[in-house]
Design a protein that fits this description.
Strand content: 15-25%
Radius of gyration: 22 Å
Strand order of the largest sheet: 10-9-8-11-12
Distance between the termini: 40 Å
Helix content: 25-40%
Structural class: alpha+beta
Number of helices: 15
Length: 417
Amino acid sequence: MKKKLRIGILFGGRSGEHEVSLLSAASVLKAIDRKRYEVVPIAIDKQGRWLSSEASLRLIEVPTTARLSAFNESVSQADLEFATAAAVLRSGEALNIPPLPPHPRRRASDLVERSTGAELAQPGNPLTASFDVVFPVLHGTFGEDGTIQGLFELADIAYVGSGVLGSAAAMDKDTMKRLFAAAGLPQTPHIALLRSQWRADPKRVVRLIEKSLRYPLFVKPANLGSSVGISKVHARSELAAALDLAAGFDRKLIVEQGVGGPGVKPRELEVAILGNEEPEASVVGEIVPNKEFYDYDSKYADSPEDPSIPIIPANLTAAQSKQVRAMALAAFRACDCSGLARVDFLMEPARDAKGRKIKKPRILLNEINTMPGFTSISMYPKLWQASGIPYKKLIDRLITLALQSHREKQQTRFTRS
């Protein structure tokens, strides 16, 4: 009998998207082929503690209601046994070793010797060799931004998704937009600014924004996803609150000019990408949000009375669909992504704010997400389902791509001898 591949499913994390990660991981754990894979769930709680397999499962098996807020229920302290990454990698069980207590004379090297990262990042040791692939179903900060990917690289572990550069570049919307611009991809007008600038001189920042852009605006943290911390701003009276909200999630902020003008909603299009050096694009999908834009609640909270509506495939001409898919692949390559990504677009509506027909609506690149949501209502798996790859097979493809990427890296020399 062929040996099963040992797959670590890593989820949770110290991120504003912690709850989204729990939902995604629950879907992956339910769908993954247990006949082909030995699956080890590994959760990271909101305090950054790595949990045992048993505690990890309890974290996502908390009784739920129809609302995402159910995942905010606290888990008892007894359930949150501390486990080093070394123990998780060895057997999927906790050693139950508590973290070192603070001590004024303790050297920094003492802490490093007991840290999870230091043990995990030893290349070639039995611990790192325990997993064939790690699937980091982590969204947002510390999971989708290149940090955990750097740990995997140091440990020489195969993992699903983009590498350090692709993850970091796609996560930082300022850097991402600079790469898109360098690739000649059309985008909506925008500016980037720092939280320190906003807090030091709010009036100057407001003048800069209003000089550069027209309302309505979208204010976003540069390094976050799932529409966390994003606000639509219709007038100056709403701008300060939006900047304060975004500034609570990141030191860098992005302000974008809305597409279509006041009182007009653009079409929101999405394409799923799958592959490494020869990526493929799915059919184009469209989201008709149940609010002014596709925000966090629209994505993850059930609203049976007024749900957001996914349209797959989107109602586009053949030429428009071809254009969107080509732009999605170009965006994927511009950020040096691999494995998977979802690329989002904004398309001008058929009529402008004054009701005049737009003969050739522009299609503008919005952003790329290197670890898109994997919940049952997420667009990424739905787009591939419509393109002929069901959810379980999609997980298989991602694991295969992770192994291929790792083999490719093995061909690189890192020393002269």
